[in-house]
Design goal:
The chain is of the alpha+beta class. The protein has two domains: 337 residues, no CATH class; 106 residues, Sandwich (Immunoglobulin-like), CATH 2.60.40.10. The protein is 41% helix and 22% strand. Strands 10, 11, 12, 14 and 16 form a five-stranded antiparallel beta sheet that branches. A four-stranded antiparallel beta sheet has the order 15-13-17-18, with no helix packed on it. The chain has a three-stranded antiparallel beta sheet with strand order 5-6-7, with no helix packed on it.
Length: 495
């Protein structure tokens, strides 16, 4: 076997370095020894459990504030009453959706579309301005992970105690603490599943059904499915959901630019990093402000090192900024070694005011304008919305017939849906052809939040009417003057 020497040029901070490397000229495969044992090669790195360290500070306080706000709303909203009913209830069986004073039907699907558009543009706007704010503070995965970590700390102690206990043998203390943790986790998970189903089944009825164990199959399935998902995702999968399952982590880079506020490490100020005493002068030691304590890694819920730059696993929670400020206070250095800033601000050394001015860039203004227009349109539409719906269907028995007196008669079926919580009287009239009139009952009483199919007979003169289809309009007016709905239909004149 012959070999030849080649060189590889690499650029370092000191200059170009030439490294001689011996490369074999014989490229034929090397056969393993006949008695060699097969070797198992792992294609995937084994998962290592992350033990996030507890942290306090400005961003941590905001995160816990969002935990309290979101969970008070989630757990408390189903128990809130509005009149004689649950304030927020999505009654799929009756196809009615109650949201405080609004009663919506499937025909109001456009409002769901509006909510989705508002949510999407809000996500684009917040991400363009300040990165993954949703992920770091209000995402259910983040919220429940914070809750489950707090319960884990309550049962098993702080980070170092949990690591020692997991590495040690099983004993009564370990079993007892683990069992207490599991009891809290399961209780919160079941309460979460119960509250989720309580948005679709009246929660007081659901509570009674749970008490006597008289639940429907779908209620059982969704309660325990949602509880299991909460238990598994927040208790065990945690950062894996954010890193591998959530698509947002993958496409967030498309919404980032160099003026997006992100959690950043000040490389110029922090490097070279190294340990030192509090009294030491870092300039004399040739060190930066970073004392290399690794606390920023220990507090990170996804286990990354923010000092390596922006990474897709970062959820922007600011825990590393909080703990770094604490360390800076202890060693007597200025805060802000890890902070919310932009890439342009860090490279061009902008002040806070300069950074904020560049945040209001064209794409942010476009997102804000579109979001504002959609919100205004949604609010105006809800304000001007007529609180009843009408669908017109032709009678399938006969297209047209000759009635008494030689008049042409068409029969229709009108579905009138009362979207108010009071009984309403509706008057039905028809226009579109000369001498056209409703000859059946044209005053209809419909109870609150109910719908009713009403047969309507419409007659017109035979003389002077051309054979074929003629467009007519039904006008349905509520007695309380809340509005008039006009629906188009076809009146058939036989040949």
């Amino acid at each position: 076997m012959t070999s030849k020497e080649t060189t590889v040029n690499t650029n370092t901070e000191q200059g170009r370095v030439v490294i001689p490397i011996a490369v074999s000229a014989d490229t034929s495969p090397i056969a393993p020894p006949p008695d060699a044992e097969p070797e198992m090669v792992a294609l995937y790195e084994a998962h290592k459990k992350i033990y996030p360290r507890s942290v306090t500070g400005f961003f941590s306080n905001w995160r816990w504030a969002l935990v309290w706000i979101t969970q008070i709303i989630f757990y408390g909203l189903p128990w809130l009453e509005w009149g004689q009913r649950q304030a927020v209830l999505f009654d799929l069986g009756a196809r009615r959706f109650y949201i405080f004073g609004l009663v919506l039907y499937p025909q109001d699907f456009i409002y769901l579309t509006g909510i989705l558009v508002i949510s999407a543009y809000s996500l684009f706007l917040f991400t363009a301005v300040a990165g993954r704010l949703w992920c770091g503070y209000a995402c259910p995965q983040t919220v429940y992970t914070e809750m489950f970590l707090w319960m884990e700390k309550l049962a098993e102690g702080d980070r170092s105690a949990r690591m020692r206990r997991d590495a040690g043998p099983w004993n009564l203390d370990k079993i007892g603490r683990k069992a207490f943790k599991q009891l809290m986790w399961v209780s919160v998970a079941l309460a979460t599943g119960f509250s989720f189903v309580g948005y679709f089944t009246p929660i007081r009825v659901l509570a009674h059904e749970f008490a006597v164990w008289d639940l429907g199959s779908w209620e059982i399935f969704w309660t325990f499915f949602y509880a299991f998902a909460t238990y598994g995702n927040a208790g065990y999968m945690r950062e894996q959901v954010c890193k591998y399952m959530c698509p947002y982590a993958r496409f967030q880079s498309a919404m980032f630019d160099k003026d997006t506020m992100i959690v950043t490490y000040d490389v110029e100020r922090g490097e070279p990093r190294g340990a030192r005493s509090k009294k030491a002068d870092p300039a004399k030691l040739g060190l930066g402000a970073c004392v290399d304590c690794s606390l920023c890694v220990q507090v990170c819920p996804t286990g990354i090192d923010i000092r390596k730059g922006l990474q897709y696993e970062c959820i922007g929670c600011g825990a590393c900024a909080d703990v770094c400020d604490t360390v800076m206070d202890k060693v007597g250095y200025a805060r802000g070694l890890v902070k919310y800033s932009t890439q342009n601000a860090m490279s061009q050394h902008w002040t806070r005011n300069q950074t904020l001015r560049h945040v209001l860039r064209p794409r942010v203004l476009v997102y804000t304008s579109i979001l504002g227009l959609v919100v205004i349109a949604m609010a105006v539409s809800l304000t001007l919305r007529i609180p009843f719906k009408v669908d017109v269907v032709r009678d399938r028995g006969a297209l047209a017939r000759i009635a008494e007196g030689g008049r042409i008669e068409n029969v229709f079926r009108l579905q009138i849906m009362n979207a108010t919580e009071a009984a309403q009287q509706f008057h039905v009239s028809v226009t579109g052809m000369p001498d056209l009139q409703v000859v059946s009952e044209n005053d209809v009483q419909i109870e609150s939040t109910q719908s009713r199919w009403v047969p309507v007979r419409v007659q017109g003169p035979m003389e002077g009417a051309e054979p074929g289809s003629h467009t007519i309009h039904f006008e349905i007016t509520a007695s309380n003057n809340v509005g008039t709905v006009v629906e188009k239909a076809a009146f058939i004149v036989p040949r």
